[in-house]
Every structure is written in C-alpha cells, then in structure tokens.
C-alpha cells in the first residue's frame, strides 16, 4: 500500500504520462524492496529504545502539538496572521524534534532512566494485577527539557505555536477582527472581538433608518 501511494503521489508526477504498466509495476516492486530494507534497519534502532509505546507517543507529539497549536491560534486569536502560523509551526516542529531526539539519546546512553512504582499485591484484599507505571526521577545530569515527560509533548508543542505565533503576528502586522471571517472564530471568544463591531453596525443601521424616515417625511410634505 505504501509503495503504491509513493508511486502515485510522488513518482508519477516526474515520470512520463504514458508509462507502461510493466514499468510501473517494476517501480512499485523496487519501492517495496527499499521500504523492506529500511524497515529491517529500523528494527535494530527500535530495539535500543526504551518502550515502543513511549516512542510512538513521542513521535506523534512532535507533529500533533503543532497541529493543535494552529487550531487554537486560528480559533481564538483574530490577530494571528499566516506568517505567524507558518513560522510558529515550523519552530514548534524543530524544538519538539530536538527535545524528542535528546530524550531518546539520553535513554539509549543510560543517562536517563525510568523507575517503576511498587506493584506487589501482598496483603491486598483484591486480586488485581497492576501494570508498572514509569516515573521519571529527577536528574541533574540530563538537560531539563530532555527530562520532560512524553505525555507533555503535545501541550508544549501547541503552546510554542500559540505564543510564538502571536509574537510574530504582532511584529508582522496583526489582523483586525473585521478582516477575519466571524464564522471561523470560536463562540467562546467571538463576543469579545465582535461586540464593538455589532454596536457600530446597529448604530449605523439606526442612522440609515432615521435618514430614510426623514426623507420620506420631506417627500410627503412636498
């Protein structure tokens, strides 16, 4: 499946339009072989990592944090512009990649270890099996950001996007609420941005109506 996606979405755009099915099949077979070799080498790397679930969560948090931050930035802040969104997302990805790699390298070197809470059920009235929960002990030998829990990666990544995005938007020309589609803003904060606009529109509507009535009155008198 992955080979077909790579061929159709990437390689086919750079090949001749009328590629024979035989050649296309050969390309896909070659991609399958390459992916298989890469997967085999990844096994040797993964076996040195401390827990596949943690690695999967960490890698997902690298990009999920940036995605969540973009949604928060767009839904709650009308001043955010496209430059702020783009550069803050890139910065978040770079920072979170650095943190994740630093954490995993520290684990592989043994500089960072995880301890587990006691799981003994001696003298316990209930016969329950408890899965050990990893707890990160404090360590001064590892950089503080590398000791960050992998469960916090999404939160940290999203906050980087929001904070950096607002700063960049401020210095590159923030958007005005009137320039942003009101339907794209969360109802929780919409009234704070558009309350003044609604009042102005109401006043203008009343002025127009008053002018129309006066015009009709003058026309009737004439």
UniProtKB/TrEMBL annotation:
InterPro entries: Na/Glc_symporter_sf, Na/solute_symporter, Sodium:Solute_Symporter_SSF
GO biological process, one term: sodium ion transport
Keyword Ion transport: yes
Regions annotated as coiled coil: none
Family classification: Belongs to the sodium:solute symporter (SSF) (TC 2.A.21) family.
Protein name, as recorded: Sodium/solute symporter
UniProt key word Transport: yes
Subcellular location field: Cell membrane
Domain of life of the organism encoding this protein: Eukaryota
A GO cellular component annotation in the UniProt record: plasma membrane
Membrane topology type: Multi-pass membrane protein
Molecular-function annotations in GO: symporter activity
Record keywords: Cell membrane, Ion transport, Membrane, Sodium, Sodium transport, Transmembrane, Transmembrane helix, Transport
């Amino acid at each position: 499946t992955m080979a077909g996606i790579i061929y159709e979405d990437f390689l086919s755009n750079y090949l001749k339009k009328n590629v024979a099915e035989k050649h296309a099949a050969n390309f896909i077979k070659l991609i399958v072989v390459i992916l298989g070799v890469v997967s085999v080498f990844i096994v040797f790397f993964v076996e040195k990592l401390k827990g596949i679930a943690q690695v999967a969560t960490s890698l997902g948090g690298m990009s999920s944090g940036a995605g969540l931050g973009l949604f928060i930035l767009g839904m709650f802040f009308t001043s955010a512009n496209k430059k702020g969104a783009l550069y803050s997302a890139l910065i978040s990805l770079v920072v979170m990649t650095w943190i994740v790699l630093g954490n995993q390298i520290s684990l592989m070197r043994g500089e960072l270890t995880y301890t587990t809470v006691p799981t003994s059920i001696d003298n316990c009235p209930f016969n329950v099996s408890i899965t050990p929960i990893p707890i990160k002990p404090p360590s001064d030998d590892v950089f503080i950001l590398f000791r960050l829990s992998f469960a916090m990666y999404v939160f940290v990544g999203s906050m980087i996007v929001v904070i950096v995005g607002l700063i960049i938007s401020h210095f590159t020309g923030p958007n005005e609420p009137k320039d942003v589609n009101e339907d794209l803003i969360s109802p929780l904060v919409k009234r704070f941005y558009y309350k003044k606009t609604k009042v102005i529109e109401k006043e203008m509507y009343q002025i127009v109506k008053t002018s129309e009535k006066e015009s009709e009155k003058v026309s009737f008198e004439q």
